[in-house]
Amino acid sequence: MTNDQLDCKVLVTPTSFGRGDPALKNAIEKAVREVVYSPFDRPLTSAELIPLVKDIDGYIAGLDRIDESVIEAASKLKVIARYGVGVDKVSIPAATRRGIAVTNTPGANSAAVAEMSIGLMLSLCREICRADRGTRKGEWPRVSGIGLRGKNVGLIGFGSVGREVASRLKGFGCRVLVSDPQLDTKVAEQLGVYPTPIEELLAEADFVSLHASLNPGTDSMVNAGFLSKMKRGSFLVNTARGELIDEQALQVAIEDGHIRGAALDCFRKEPPGKDHPILRLDQVLLTPHIASHTDEAASAMGWMSLQACLSVLRDEKSPYTVNRDIYEKKS
Ligand code: DGY
């Protein structure tokens, strides 16, 4: 251990941590006494986490299930630094009770997620994946799609990602409708988008793209009622959280032709399992929760989560703390 090294052990679980940016791993390995990387190439269950968290001081966390049992087992833990924005898989009340700081990386992956959302919209418009699959098989599927120009796109959620999506869609000549209970009307005006009541948005949008965080109010918001209010023949895109969608209701809406297609980057259970009925639908484009996976976003999430983790381990307040009330309790 060197003089300026923290006498701490840190668990790192994101699969893309330091990929394409070796300086990040060097920095963390220099900064603390011991670093343990996840033995799995996917998010961890709480049962898998329990033996790994027993003697750690800091935790740079992927999309692992960090429930109360994990937090109870981590008796020395001071900080859970989420590598990403969503903290829905972390039991914040349990962390707060124990005085553990939960931090995230706001803005670090917004451009990546926005670009993926637009890519999925374009792929749906032009059936790029079906054309690729057919061409590989020796078929010559000369699919004829629809254009994005002039279409109405409804964004559910107008935070950092929603805004990045909106500004790009303007370049495609789309009319962008937005719905968000915390809508910043000034930003909406600056970006030239239309704040629209949800029912109106669903009735008008050719594409509905989800950019809301997961909380009890948004869990399963895309249910049978929501889908029936969407315009007939419209598309759904989800790069936010799988739990926003009632997947069975979506399957029914696609099978009966009301919804023309969907692009899903996330699922209620990840991975969804080979027998998940949605996997059989040709009109659904599926990707494995990779919207934030670019070199640039991985680097930004890595450095921001490392900085947040080290600040708390040095007994400093991190500006990215989600449960800021822990600092009030301590002072
Ligand atoms: C996020 O930002 O929460 C993404 O899902 C990546 O972790």
Report a brief summary of the structure:
The chain is of the alpha/beta class and 331 residues long. It has 13 helices and twelve strands.
Quaternary organisation: single chain
> What's the average pLDDT?
97
Helical residue percent? 25-40%
What strand order characterises the main sheet? 8-7-6-9-10-11-12
Helix-strand topology string = EHEHEHEHEHHEHEHEHEHEHEEHH
Tell me the structural class. alpha/beta
- Please state the overall shape, judged from the principal axes of the Cα atoms: globular
N-to-C CA distance:
31 Å
Strand content: 15-25%
What is the CATH level 1 assignment of the largest domain?
Answer: Alpha Beta
Q: What can you tell me about this protein's structure?
A:
This protein is an alpha/beta fold and 331 residues long. Helices cover 37% and strands 16% of the residues. It has 13 helices and twelve strands. The strands form two sheets. It has a seven-stranded parallel β-sheet with strand order 8-7-6-9-10-11-12, with helices on both faces. Helix 7 (160-171) links the parallel strand 6 (152-156) and strand 7. The model has no long low-confidence stretch (mean pLDDT 97). Bound molecules: (2R)-2,3-dihydroxypropanoic acid. (2R)-2,3-dihydroxypropanoic acid (DGY) binds next to loops.
